C-alpha cells in the first residue's frame, strides 16, 4: 500500500512539473550548414551568400536589393499565456555596387525598439446618425405585401 501511494505521488509530481515546462517555438531562418555570421566582408558575393544561406528572409525596401536580412527568433509559451520572444537574431548583410559583401551586422533582441501605435482615429466623411435615426431608419422600407400573382415559383398568366 505504501509503495502504491509513493508511486502515485511520484507520478503526480512528474505530471505537475511537466505542465510547467514552456512550449518552445523557433521561427524564421534556420541555419543548417552555414551561419550568417560566417559570411566575410570583402570576399563573399551575392552568389556565394545565396549558395551558403539560401534566399534571405527579407530584403531592404529602400536600398534596391543591396541589403539582405536573415531573421530568426525563439519564443516560449506557458499554458494559456501569449508567446514571449526570448531570443531574436537579425543578420544584416550589405552589398556594394559590385555585388560583394560590404558589411555584416548581427542585431539581437536588445537592439529592437518598441513602436507604439497611435490610438487616434481619422474621421470619415459623411453624416453621423443619431440613435433615433438608427432605430427608425428602416421604418417604411419594408416590402409591400405580396399578391397571388406575385408569389415566387408561380407561372405568370397573361
Description:
- The protein is built from three helices and five strands, in the order αβαββββα.
- With 158 residues, it is of the alpha+beta class.
- Strands 1, 2, 3, 4 and 5 form a five-stranded antiparallel sheet that branches.
- β4 and β5 form a beta hairpin.
- The longest helix is centred in the first third of the chain and has 18 residues.
- The model has no long low-confidence stretch (mean pLDDT 82).
Kindly list the characteristics that best describe this protein.
five-stranded antiparallel beta sheet, 20% helix, flat
Mean pLDDT: 82
State the order of secondary-structure elements, H for helix, E for strand: HEHEEEEH
Give the class from helix and strand content and strand pairing. alpha+beta
Considering DSSP H and I runs of 4 or more, what fraction of the residues is helical?
10-25%
Instruction: Give the number of helices.
Output: 3
Instruction: Estimate what percentage of residues fall within beta strands.
Output: 15-25%
What value does the Rg take, in angstroms? Answer: 32 Å
N-C termini distance: 94 Å
Low-confidence stretches at least 5 residues in length (pLDDT < 50)? none
Estimate the global geometry from the Cα principal axes.
Answer: flat
Question: Sheet with the most strands?
Answer: 5 strands, antiparallel
**What's the β-strand tally?**
5
Give a short overview.
With 158 residues, the protein is an alpha+beta fold. The chain has 3 helices and 5 strands, in the order αβαββββα.
Topology, please?
Layout: H1 2-19, E1 23-28, H2 46-53, E2 58-59, E3 67-77, E4 84-95, E5 101-108, H3 131-136
Antiparallel strand pairs: 1-3, 2-3, 3-4, 4-5
